[in-house]
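Sample intake sheet
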Amino acid sequence: MDPIILISLASVLIVGLGLLAFIGRTPKPPKGTYPTTRDANDPAPGGAAGTAVLDRPETDDAGPSGTAVAEPEAPQAAPVPTTDVADTEAPAAVELETPAPAAGRLARLRARLAKSNNIFGKGLLALLSSDNITEDVWEEVEETLLLADLGTAPTLELVDNLRERVTVEGSRDPQQVKAMLHEELVKMVDPGMDRRLDATRRQDRPAVMMVVGVNGVGKTTTVGKIGRVLVAEDRRVVFGAADTFRAAAAEQLATWGSRVGVDTVRSHEDGADPASVAFEAVKTGIEQEADVVIVDTAGRLQNKSNLMDELGKIKRVIEKQAQVDEVLLVLDATTGQNGLAQAKVFAEVVNITGIALTKLDGTAKGGIVVAIQRELGVPVKLVGLGEGPDDLAPFNAEGFVEALLD
């Protein structure tokens, strides 16, 4: 056969065999996938939530011009670090704060009050236990009581009662004098006043509490502490951040809420209408079937009539949905008689139902409790002696007087 024909046939044969080999080869799998089916022990590429290309179900994807549209693929999870499962820990659940028992809080507050105000008790006892109680001594007693912010009328009444008892009983024994002074002070503090917060849900709505006062007395902190105690009593609480003028006031209240598990209704706009925030807070409380809605209001100077009028507006707007059951006035106990002047103006605008005295440690004298109750006919319901979350407790007349005279 002609050599040229043989060479041509050989070339055709080689080319044909090459084509057959190319057509019949197995394609190389994409990088990062398995060439065979995974078994149960093989980790999925891209992390535990990933799916290998060869294990994905086939779909009919005709594209934009087709009649069938492919379902969108689920987003791929971020790669999981290559750490042994035994060494990984699940994120810890958020642990909500709970207050100390009321008895413990009262004991601690009394101890701190006794330490900070013992000059009051020691001064009176030293004067009344002297062998010869002259007119000058009684004048010193009056001065001590006035310096303790007891007020003029209560001071004169207390001195008259003590003079009569000391004269009749003729006792100079320090323990007996202390007992007399204790009895007279308890009468003036009036243990018969109802000091319970009105925080009980009505049949169809939550109890609504407004917290008012001037700037810097600790309103927002007091709201947070009250909510903390109510939540510990298994009550559902909603906060209303109606202090829309002080920088970060709403954020501060929301922080308290997150610590104790309370929703906070707030506006993210500076200078928003506080009445509208209060309205939304009460609306939310009704929708959530909350037990209590506590509305924090902006600080007001009692001599600014426009600000006080706005406070009255907040109360009126709230009462379009629900009655305001408690109006708690927060006072700084260190302001003394100036605090009493503040209380008078607030009482005229929003009908105060209770007093929360903060900062009763330090330079506070304690007599303001008697003065403010006498002037307003409104009970002191809560006392605070510091910034700690448990430094707020129900006011107790007996315990308060005992602490003063300790």
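Comment: The longest strand covers residues 326-332. The first helix runs from residue 3 to 24.
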